[in-house]
Amino acid sequence: MGRVASAATLTIAGVGGPETSRPIFSGIVYTGAAGFRRFHKCREAKPSRQARRKALPAVLAAAVLEFPLSWTKFCLGSLLLVPVASSGADVCEVSAAKAVFTIPHVKHAASLDTDPMSATWKHAASAWIEKDCTSRTGYPDLRTEVRAFWTDTDLYLLFISPYHELNLWLPADNSKDRLKLWDRDVVEFFLGDDWTDIKHYREFEVAPTGDWVDLAIDLNKQKYEADWNSGWERQGRIDESKHIWYAAARVPLKAVSERPVKPGTKWRANLYRIDGLGEDPQRHFLCWQQTCTPNHDPNHVPENFGTIAFGR
């Protein structure tokens, strides 16, 4: 993983569109979970997640890198493949009233499972993930239901994800964190209780195979903690006959907040799904609360998170 070079700027000549010179920190060297993804892909000469915008070809006449190289590895070729939006017409806009997911309290929860018809999910509330994170595009055929409720000790979530084809890490290994899980089909949810320091939150991911990763994110320090352990429980299941895969999670409330959770408590949150074969430009990046930030990792945008409200 690289280190951040201070005051670094990438200047691109001959590119259509308004964004021709910008701090490289915002687009390339952020070393949180998203930054790890970018460096991983750079080493393999693949375009990053931020390069996924469809129909936005990169037209680069020249590139000038204006900083002393301070990384052990740097892939300029991959950098040059990152397209820059030529028009903002397709980019979504975040409204002042961001998404709110109010979830009910359940006194006695059953054991965690991935069966949406089971008693475990009988009293859960539902939200839906079907829009592209950055553009006005919708994916009704991938419309993903998220069911949730909470108990005195835990937050429960169930993702119900229709699919066409699966993109999996195989063989599965549920015994430990699986980094780079985001490079295949996965659902993600980010949770944070700090409304002052919004760059501090937790990241959770589950794949159809049940592979998982949980991360402590602190964008102020440009890092994630892969060795952090939330103590959560998770499951994945694939129903090939229905072309639906399921992910269930039970997250201890204390893993996200040291403060007591009670009716009326609100957490900052977002819900995501990544789907599809191929490289990032061919894949689908869906958000419950759209983040609407082109040329940037679409998930790690805490200023555009929605809210989970703990109900009665």
Helix content, binned percent: under 10%
Helix/sheet category: mainly beta
Number of strands: 17
Instruction: List the uncertain runs.
Output: 1-87
> What's the CATH class label of the largest domain?
Mainly Beta
CATH fold type of the largest domain:
Immunoglobulin-like
Quick rundown:
The chain is mainly beta and 312 residues long. Helices cover 7% and strands 32% of the residues.
Could you explain the architecture of this structure?
With 312 residues, this protein is mainly β. The protein folds into two domains: 9-80, no CATH class; 100-310, Immunoglobulin-like (Sandwich). The protein has helices spanning 24-29, 33-43, 76-80, and strands at residues 9-13, 21-23, 62-66, 100-103, 125-129, 131-132, 144-150, 154-162, 186-192, 200-206, 212-218, 223-225, 233-239, 244-252, 266-275, 284-287, 306-310. Strands 4, 6, 9, 10, 11, 12, 15, 16 and 17 form a nine-stranded mixed β-sheet that branches. It is globular and about 40 Å long. 40% of the residues are buried.
Helix-strand blueprint:
Elements: E1 9-13, E2 21-23, H1 24-29, H2 33-43, E3 62-66, H3 76-80, E4 100-103, E5 125-129, E6 131-132, E7 144-150, E8 154-162, E9 186-192, E10 200-206, E11 212-218, E12 223-225, E13 233-239, E14 244-252, E15 266-275, E16 284-287, E17 306-310
Parallel strand pairs: 4-17
Antiparallel strand pairs: 1-2, 1-3, 5-7, 6-16, 7-8, 8-14, 9-10, 9-15, 10-11, 11-12, 13-14, 15-16, 15-17
Task: Give structural attributes.
312 residues, mainly beta, Immunoglobulin-like, 5-stranded antiparallel beta sheet
